[in-house]
Specification:
It is a single chain. The chain has one helix and five strands; from the N terminus they run βββββα. It is of the alpha+beta class and 82 residues long. It has a five-stranded antiparallel β-sheet with strand order 3-2-1-4-5. It is elongated, with a radius of gyration of 14 Å. Pfam families: DUF3006 (PF11213).
Length: 82
């Protein structure tokens, strides 16, 4: 697997479900114990698989930018519904 960007969508029964960025139509499912570090739902990451171990690099800047966009959208929706 080459380096590809994904977003962690959810964790279910010990598996992490990632959606390929940016379309988020393709997904990969990785056993949490096969990952080299813990991550949180919503994190944008790059993933590289080597010998059955998934090396994950958290893209902190992209993750923070996306979270800020979501907060802004949620604020606008809240104000609209008041």
């Amino acid at each position: 697997m080459s380096l590809t960007k994904y977003t962690l969508d959810r964790i279910e029964d010990g598996y992490a479900v990632f959606l390929k960025y940016p379309e988020e139509e393709e997904q990969i499912i990785i056993l949490q114990s096969a990952m080299n570090k813990p991550i949180q739902v919503g994190d944008r990451v790059q993933i590289e698989e080597t010998d059955g171990i998934y090396h994950i690099e958290i893209l902190k800047e992209e993750t923070e930018q996306k979270k800020a966009e979501i907060r802004s959208l949620m604020d606008r929706l809240r104000r609209k519904n008041q």
